[in-house]
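Lay summary

Proteins are chains of building blocks that fold into shapes. Our project writes down both the chain and a compact code for its shape. Here are two examples, one after the other.
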Amino acid sequence: MKLCLITNYGNRSYVNEKFIHDQLLVTLSITSKDCYDFSNANSAYSINKQYDFALITLDYKITSIEKYDKFLSEVKIPKIFLVESIAEKHKEVCMSFLDYRSTLFTSLSTVHQNLLYSKYSNGLIFYSELDKRMFDEFYNVDKSIARTVIPPSLGKKKNIKVDFKNLKPNTNILFNGCPSFSNGITNLDQALQGLNTYTADIYGTHGREDLANENIVNHITSTNNNVKFLGKLKDIKKSFSIYHIFFNATIYDSFNYLAFLSLLNGTIPILSSNTGTSSYFKSYPFIAEHNIESLKYTLELINQTPIKYLQDILKDTANHMLELNDKTSKEKYLNFFNEL
């Protein structure tokens, strides 16, 4: 069974999506030669000749459907959409922050998203059960189209274990990703207003909500001396030896790969309840509710937990993630394809 990947992510500097994309290629043995974009419709003929299935990841930060509609109409092999997150949920959260900011949220319309899924999808793969359920709240796609949940792999099973050498308690907080309201950045700012011993360094890019996120970061860094924006993180491995806490107390997310990576490297993720990511952290104590007081409490809980207990928590949590390995993930993909 030969697979290709069709995507419009290209060189967009998203952080989480790149980690997931790179690991997906490894898990499914897809090479760079098996990856296509939507720029050349003639590529569809090569795809039809060489491959059995096409996996499609679509960044919804686009305004026109024309070239995607044209390209996908020429791809005749089964097309499986990887729904990495729910675009309309991101938009809903953005609009809830400040209504006027909705004009700053660029995305393909709901109607056109629905059309692409309905017209071209032979199957839908989600990264969390939350997204699988939420999908039907925003889109009207025929229930006969096969759906399943396959979370990204964390690599080989033997490597899914905690490296404790980086576990050095301090009050340094790391954020790496898109610094948006959806990702909890404003909540982090408010929490640190009352916890002056903590410092937070924000790495990443402004992401899909460019202008809105830039305004948020500029406001926070100009009013809170404990928060800094440091641009793109160049050495993720080194960062785990500097920061004790990885901030992922989001309002909505699907699967934050770096939250898992941080745990496996001895940096404590702080999560929020009822998100796709937190659903994979079984019996994990550092999950905050969606309010500032709970976030403060959870930060202090991490800080006050003895290192021996932290080691036990990380080890136990990692053991519950062993199923997120390359072999199991690939088997799930192949079984899903064979059932179509």
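And here is the second example, written the same way.
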Amino acid sequence: MALFRKKSTTNSAFTSSNDSSNLGELKQYTTLTTSKIYKTITGLNKDYTLGNFDTVREDITPDTYIRYSEELLKMRQTAYPVYEDIRSQVSATLQTLLQASNKYDELTAAQFQVADLQQQNTILNDMEKLLAHITQLKRSMTIFPDQSISVIPVQIKPEYLAYIQMFGLPQGNIWDPDRLALATTKVAMAAAAAANAANAANAANTL
């Protein structure tokens, strides 16, 4: 589904009442629709529409989602409500692409499970394969099998952790781009402050 089907209608929204006051808003709209981030998101949306799910999945990663969110937030202009409505549509498209990417991962995992169940079903319905499988299990079986317990550490990027601290967990695990960009700014500011404090401490120690 195209984001903007009637470009002329959109342009008229900027110039219907007061041409001089809406000129700045029209300029912002032009800047948005010619920007790299706009072309990237609309391009991915087209890939999604055409069924190129691998392309979308490979592009929408935790890192790129943060970067795209930051770029969209930089283009926010609250003084222009019509423009902001359009920018919000682009932001919503980015969220939709993230959700589509997550669902694609779930579908891929389910397909692997189905394939595994089909393989098990083939063994159970074939006596020769079943006997061969049992024989293989007996050969590999030990009285006291080696056991190892490992805990995989859960890692979450600081930007997403800051988002949770500031706004709570997002509904459906779909991160709001503007909020994520604000959380990213907070993390960057905290890192800069920590670096400045460390530099000041080092300078004091050298005196």
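What can we say about the second shape? The CA atoms of residues 163 and 180 lie 6 Å apart.
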